[in-house]
Write a structure and sequence with these properties.
This protein is mainly beta. It has a single domain, classed as YVTN repeat-like/Quinoprotein amine dehydrogenase (Methylamine Dehydrogenase, Chain H, 7 Propeller), CATH 2.130.10.10. The chain is built from 2 helices and 34 strands. It is globular, with a radius of gyration of 19 Å.
Amino acid sequence: MKIRALVISTALALSIWSAGGFLGAATQAPLPVPPPLQQAPGHGESQLQSDSFGQQGTSIQALTSLGNDLVYAGSFGLGLFRSEDRGVSWTKSGEGVTDPFILTLTTGKDGAIYAGTFRGGVFRSRDRGKSWQAINSGLKRLEIKALLAVSDGVYAGTSDGVYRLAAERWSVVTTGLDDILVHTLALSSDGTLFAGTSGKGIVRFKAQSTGWVRQPHGLKDHEGMTENFIRVLTIDPEGGIYAGTFDGGVYCSADGGTTWRPISRALPNDSIRGILFNSRGLFVATGHGIFKTIDKGRQWVPLNKGLTSMAIQVLIESGAGVLYAGTSDGAFRSDDDGRTWSPINQGLEGGEVPAPFRFR
């Protein structure tokens, strides 16, 4: 029987980078107490005051790109990296970022890069990653799980709902998600904002409406169980909405989110960490590899040749046929639409990774 993600176990917390992050304060067992941030002498960034987890591979939780060659990687515990040659080599970025636990990255329409962190809020770089500034005014809490850059601004999914950045200040989009962790955001062509949450499923907000509306039918699997823990949301060019869950696979809605159907019964792994589209199909990153379908989920083809780590944390596309994958043990690039992968870890090598929390 499938174990439902109702609480965070100690074992899951200790392997947070492999599991893709916390489910959120509203659904957790009592949380470990984070140690305070302190400035590490001799470094341009802060580190967590706690014992180190020790030497291990670099867990890449977030990726974003600018143009064809410039790529940014966010790690869980080692901060930010940038590459000017499509990942062939990496250099440390993140000067000014006070939390080395990066959960999400996005590129704004003006080329600015935004980074969301575990405990430090949001940081922005306008000089191609050379320096970063905190932009946290208006945020109630600083755990940032999702960033979405669209034509009218930037949205943040936090452990206290959804915020929008305007005039250098964040404001709550609308009421109804207090103390709810938002893992993912998507905006449809008609301006409807969708949020995937921990415990409340998918909610949507239309401009001029009074608040968030929970989807009436929910995401039900083949056994009739409702999936309420949503990790990924993506909208395809035709308006179809795809939702990836923590342990219940992939769902699709063709009617603006009113009804959903599961499409991943043939998918070998139900832990969904990323979904993307291109003209060649639908790509899904899971806890055990990357898969593609061209028939809306009836068949899934594995795309794992060359991957030495199958615990995928993030998947993006940059340029025609060029894919980047972040895993619990480094990053990979594919130049042939995912058919083969090559490791791109020069400069990403891990060091002493600090613990993000400590127990009482």
